[in-house]
Fold this protein.
Amino acid sequence: MNKHVTSDGTVGKALELLDMVVAFGRSVRFSEVLEVSPFPKATTHRLLQTLTNQGMLAFDEDRHVYVPGMRLVRMSRHAWTQSSLAPLAQPFVAALAADVSETIHLAQMERGRVIFVEKTTPKTGFKTMATPGRRSPAHCTGVGKVMLAFMDAARRTEALDGQSWEGFTPNTHRSSDTLLPELEQIRAEGVAFDREEHEQGIISIAAPILGGSSRVIGALSVVTSTFRMSLKDIEKFRPALQRTAAQIGGEAAGWPYPIAQ
C-alpha cells in the first residue's frame, strides 16, 4: 500500500485511513494499520477512534482488532444499489458467461482506477483472481483501457495522470506515449485487448458500456488464460460481448450511474 498523504484535511485523512483498513479484507490490528498509515502514531490512533465513534469502524475489545462498522455496511449497501451497475447488469453478465463458457468481468472506474463490481464464472470457465470490490490499474487491463478510450479528452487526461505506470509484465505500457495510440485504435475498433499486461498468462477482450448521451459508465470483458486460448481465439467473443454491453447500456440509459473518471 502506498503511503500517500491526502490534502483534503481531517475528513480526507479519515477516509484515506478507512480505505486502508477496509483494503486488508479482514480484521486488522492497530500495529498493522500503523505500518501502512502515512500519519504519525497519535494521529492514526485519533482517526481510528473517530471512525469507530461514528460507526464506520468497529473495535473488537477481546481480539483488539478493527473491522468495518455497521454504519459503513448500511451506506455501502445503499451505494451499491444506487451507483453500481452490478444489480442491473447481473442477468446479462450471467447470460454472456453461459453463452461463451468463460469468465466475465463487469467494471467501473473511479479516479483512474478500475473497480470490479461483478464477476461470473461458469463451471467450464477459467477462474480469475479478480473479485467484486477489487481495484486495479486502468493502463494495463482490458476494461480499463476501453473505458479510457471512450472517455472525453479532459477526463482521459485526468485519469492518465493518476496512473502509476507500474510495469507488471513485459507487455505493460509504461507511459501514455505508448498507450495513447492504442486508445485511438480501441475507440475505432470498439474493443480492447489485455495482452498479458497485468498478469502473465491472462488475456481478455473488453467492450465499453455506454449510458445516456453515450457516456462511458463501465466496461465488460471476457477473460481467459493463454493456456486455453490465444488472442486470435478470443476474437470470436466480440459479437456477443458487444451485444451484451449494448443491452446493459440500454437498460442503464435512464439511471444516473457515475461517469467513468
Remarks:
- The chain has a mean pLDDT of 89.
- The beta strands are 57-60, 65-68, 103-110, 113-120, 135-137, 192-195, 202-210, 216-225.
